[in-house]
From TrEMBL:
<feature type="compositionally biased region" description="Basic and acidic residues">
    <location>
        <begin position="442"/>
        <end position="453"/>
    </location>
</feature>
<keyword id="KW-0472">Membrane</keyword>
<feature type="transmembrane region" description="Helical">
    <location>
        <begin position="128"/>
        <end position="148"/>
    </location>
</feature>
<dbReference type="GO" id="GO:0005886">
    <property type="term" value="C:plasma membrane"/>
</dbReference>
<keyword id="KW-0812">Transmembrane</keyword>
<keyword id="KW-0479">Metal-binding</keyword>
<dbReference type="InterPro" id="IPR002585">
    <property type="entry name" value="Cyt-d_ubiquinol_oxidase_su_1"/>
</dbReference>
<feature type="transmembrane region" description="Helical">
    <location>
        <begin position="98"/>
        <end position="121"/>
    </location>
</feature>
<dbReference type="GO" id="GO:0009055">
    <property type="term" value="F:electron transfer activity"/>
</dbReference>
<dbReference type="GO" id="GO:0020037">
    <property type="term" value="F:heme binding"/>
</dbReference>
<keyword id="KW-0408">Iron</keyword>
<feature type="transmembrane region" description="Helical">
    <location>
        <begin position="187"/>
        <end position="211"/>
    </location>
</feature>
<feature type="region of interest" description="Disordered">
    <location>
        <begin position="442"/>
        <end position="483"/>
    </location>
</feature>
<keyword id="KW-1133">Transmembrane helix</keyword>
<dbReference type="GO" id="GO:0016682">
    <property type="term" value="F:oxidoreductase activity, acting on diphenols and related substances as donors, oxygen as acceptor"/>
</dbReference>
<dbReference type="GO" id="GO:0019646">
    <property type="term" value="P:aerobic electron transport chain"/>
</dbReference>
<feature type="transmembrane region" description="Helical">
    <location>
        <begin position="324"/>
        <end position="347"/>
    </location>
</feature>
């Protein structure tokens, strides 16, 4: 039944599906790890129980999100060898070491300290536990560093040569490869997006509980911290996004043309299209609504600056405009909505009504998942805008896929869809269930059973033994308490 389908298209759909699921978890865990470090640091500095309660409240949510991010990321790695083996073979000498560095630095750092962070609050000193929390936060950032370096090199490939067997080989300095032209902009834009995603989740949860009880001190503190983040960081993100766009125009001009909907060149200033329906077949933007010359002002800082259009790009090198055009507007629209919430919260704070305006709280609840939508829209803009290349200007997507038949790819795609919605749907439901309960005084952290961690290899021990009593279990009062 799948013989009539295109194996390449199915492989692209499968990777898009799995990476979309995966991306939302690191986008949350990167920001949440830093938020946990801030909360624990404030607890150590002030001694206030409230910060410890919030730390334990979000620690449980972080543990689940982190686990789902790791699992979904492993699946993506396997796809490089199954559906994209040619891509892996050609780019392996460059991308392989970079991804290995991510494992050897970030993943090992996170794995080494995560257990202490989750279960060590009552087993190690406060400073050592805070150090573990910091190391996990640093590990999430280092992971983003290496993965974004890999992704950025695929967009702006430099420092390589083509070997006799067709492989792309490092030519001079690894520094040039790692810090490729688009990497600094992409790193800043993506990490800030992760922080804003977390801030609006925290703000949405806090607003939900404030609508039920505006005297809840824990919810008030969460909401205040989240709104400070929105007010101060959203403007920085808009500026960073603008700088990233200018960098993209320099190195990937046809992506910006697709983002702007510029099928035609504009020698005397290009309009900023607010809406339209891209028509790739006719090479025009139907039902276009725009502001004259504003695109030239934004991109080149001159009203009459000329801007080239897709009519200067060969048809076979043009990205699909429709998904890029609309995804870009979703991302930018959410960014300005975040800025609006931040400004609104500052006005409420000035009026001393931050916890008393229910419409602000309703808006914050509505904006709670907005960060996830924005990062997915940004990913679509970036990755679909790179098409028809996997390595921009060097390796085409059609040349990167494994020689598989459509039924084989379709079968794995169906399996992924079923398993992902079941497993990650259940995990997401449990996270939402945890969020539905308000944080309170004496919040419990991640629980550890009396039997200790589950062992998956080696000899499984029997019941906890008490030296000098034979096989008699320890009395309840001698068992280490759960945290």
């Amino acid at each position: 039944m799948f013989d009539s389908l295109d194996a390449l298209l199915l492989a692209r759909i499968q990777f898009a599906f799995t990476v979309s699921f995966h991306f939302i978890f690191p986008a949350f865990s990167i920001g949440l790890a830093s938020y946990l470090a801030v909360l624990e640091g404030l607890w150590l500095k002030t001694g206030k129980q409230l910060y410890l309660d919030l730390f334990k409240y979000w620690l449980k949510i972080f543990a689940i999100a982190f686990a789902m991010g790791v699992v979904s990321g492993i699946v993506m790695s396997y796809q490089f060898g199954t559906n994209w083996s040619v891509f892996s073979d050609i780019t392996g000498p460059i991308l392989g070491p970079l991804m290995a560095y991510e494992v050897l630095t970030a993943f090992f750092l996170e794995a080494g300290f995560l257990g202490v962070m989750l279960f060590g609050m009552n087993r190690v000193g406060k400073k050592l536990h805070f150090t573990a929390t910091l190391m996990v936060a640093v590990g999430t950032f280092i992971s983003a560093f290496w993965i974004l370096s890999v992704n950025s090199w695929m967009h702006t490939p430099v420092g390589f040569t083509t070997g006799a067997n067709g492989q792309l080989l490092p030519e001079a300095s690894w520094f040039e490869i790692v810090f490729n032209p688009s990497f600094p902009y992409r790193l800043v834009h993506t990490v800030i997006a992760a922080y804003l995603t977390t801030a609006f989740v925290v703000g949405g949860v806090a607003a939900w509980h404030l609508l039920k009880d505006k005297t809840n001190g824990h919810a008030r503190k969460m909401f205040s911290m989240a709104m400070w983040m929105a007010a101060l960081v959203a403007p920085i993100q808009i500026f960073a996004g603008d700088m990233h766009g200018l960098n993209t125009m320099e190195h990937q001009p046809q992506k910006v043309m697709a983002m702007e909907g510029h099928y035609e060149s504009h020698p005397e200033g290009a309009p900023l299209y607010l809406f339209g329906i891209p028509n790739d077949e006719e090479q025009r933007l139907d039902y276009a609504i725009g502001i004259p010359k504003l695109s030239s002002l934004i991109l080149k800082h001159e009203l009459d600056a000329p801007l080239a259009g897709l009519d200067t790009i060969p048809d076979e090198d043009q990205p699909p405009v429709l998904p890029v055009f609309f995804a870009f507007r979703v991302m930018v629209g959410i960014g300005f909505a975040m800025l609006g919430i931040g400004v609104w919260s500052m006005f409420a704070r000035y009026r001393k009504k931050l916890y008393d305006w229910p419409w602000l709280h309703r808006a914050a609840v509505l904006m709670g998942p907005s960060g996830f939508v924005a990062v997915i829209a940004g990913w679509i803009t970036t990755e679909v805008g790179r098409q028809p290349f996997t390595v921009y200007g060097v390796l085409r997507t059609a040349q990167s896929a494994s020689p598989l038949d459509a039924p084989a790819v379709a079968a794995s795609l169906i399996a992924f869809v079923v398993i992902y919605f079941a497993v990650f749907g259940a995990g997401t439901w449990y996270i939402l269930r945890l969020m539905s309960h308000p944080p309170h005084l004496g919040e419990k952290g991640v629980k550890r059973t009396e039997k200790g961690p589950v062992r998956t290899a080696g000899i499984t021990p029997g019941p906890t033994q008490n030296p000098g009593r034979g096989n008699e279990p320890l009395p309840d009062h001698e068992v280490a308490p759960a945290e």
